[in-house]
Amino acid sequence: MITKQDIVDKILVGHMEQPTATAEAFAPSNIALCKYWGKRDVELNLPVTSSLSISLGKLGSRCRLSFCNERDQVILNGEELANDSTFVVRLSQYLDLFRKEQHSRYRIETENTIPTAAGFASSASGFASIVIALNKLHGWNLPDQKLSILARLGSGSASRSLWQGFVEWHVGEDDEQGMDSFAEPLQASTWPELKIGLLVLEAGEKEIGSRAAMHRTVETSQLYKSWPEKVNQDMAKLKQAIATKDFDHLGATAESNALTMHATMMAAQPPVLYWLPQSVTTMKKVWQCRHEGLPLYFTMDAGPNIKLLFLEKDKSTIINKFPSLVIA
Ligand code: PMV
Is the dihedral of CA 74, 75, 76, 81 positive or negative? Predict the structure, then answer.
């Protein structure tokens, strides 16, 4: 079996180490309009389908990386984390892929500008910012596609967090090594009037992480069979909606894509249901707004929180209706 380490070694071959003392990076969070849900290779985070996201501007993760001596040190939002915390263990395992004898440990200072583990994809921006910082710290000078693959090995959705704007993560055809499964910005596509807002309904840790929920869905959900076809259709619709700046088409497609993803997980055994009563109340409120003529749509990831999609011109109306909205 091909391992993550094999892929990292393949990517780094021929890239000289030219280390600096410290490196800093920022990566934006991203929200998928067409979701990544399901892996065809769990070790390499190779997806079953392509996916398409929009980045969250200033909301994301900042990372400052340097080498240190005895053990990895992780400082998250100003606080040093215990070495046995889930986050440090996961990060250290990831960093194991890159260690060189003379620089064997890292000090990682990272700050999230969005709630961690609340379904706002902080792992995506977290891993992406670490990959950018690693590239600078070691002086590898890797091209973006390779950085995207390295971020993918940390967390699938991190492959899309290296850029602002619309980003497509290609499913790729290389089932053995996954060297063609990377993300890149959607060509010639900016849409400054399109806004995304975050509604934090519950900021605590989730009962089940996306990794386990995804795995369970793929293995046990009858509805998962129809997911790849749904993604194919939605990818085409979203690209068309972006090209023609058709907001209703984009919003309706993204909302339907998210609801279908949640339907596949609810049909898993045991079922995965991230929704809280307030998630449902919020969805119904969005539908009521739309019924009254306001162009407003939502999307949701592996958590109970809701992201609203709307246009700049409706911003103040929407803030009035959803006062706690955090706009990216
Ligand atoms: O990258 P992961 O393993 O955290 O999975 C993310 C999955 C979703 O957020 C639900 C969908 C997506 O495409 O971001």
Answer: positive
Q: Which DSSP symbol is given to 128? A: H
Q: In the chain, what are the domains?
A: 4-185 (3.30.230.10), 194-327 (3.30.70.890)
Question: Which pair of tokens denotes residue 8?
Answer: 């990292």
**Ranges of H-type helices in the chain:** 4-12, 86-95, 122-138, 144-154, 210-220, 227-244, 247-266, 277-291, 315-321
Residue 198 has pLDDT above 70, yes or no: yes
How crowded is residue 114: how many other Cβ atoms within 10 Å of its Cβ? 21
Q: Taking the complete model, does pTM exceed 0.85, yes or no?
A: yes
Token reading at 238: 């979203």
CB atoms within 10 A of CB 57: 14
Ligand 1 binding residues, C-beta < 6 A: 32, 35-37, 51, 121, 123-124, 155-157, 210-211, 301-302
Cα 272 to Cα 257: distance, rounded to the nearest angstrom: 17
98, 101, 102: which is closest to 130 by C-alpha? 98
Contact (CB, 8 A) for 322 and 314: no
- The encoded tokens of residue 276 equal 């809280």
What does the alpha-carbon distance between residue 138 and residue 282 come to, in Å, rounded to a whole number?
46
Beta strands in the chain (DSSP E): 22-34, 39-41, 46-47, 51-68, 73-76, 79-80, 105-112, 166-169, 183-185, 194-199, 297-299, 306-311, 326-327
Residue with tokens 């920022």: 26
Q: What percent of the chain has pLDDT over 70?
A: 97
> Which residue's alpha carbon is nearest to atom 8 within ligand 1?
301
Pocket test for ligand 1, best of 55, 208, 210 (most atoms within 8 A of CB): 210
Question: Do residues 279 and 306 touch, judged by C-beta distance below 8 A?
Answer: yes
The answer to whether 17 and 140 are in contact (CB under 8 A) is yes
Give the pLDDT confidence score for residue 202 in this predicted structure: 84
Three-state SS at 322: coil
Average pLDDT over every residue of 101-127: 77
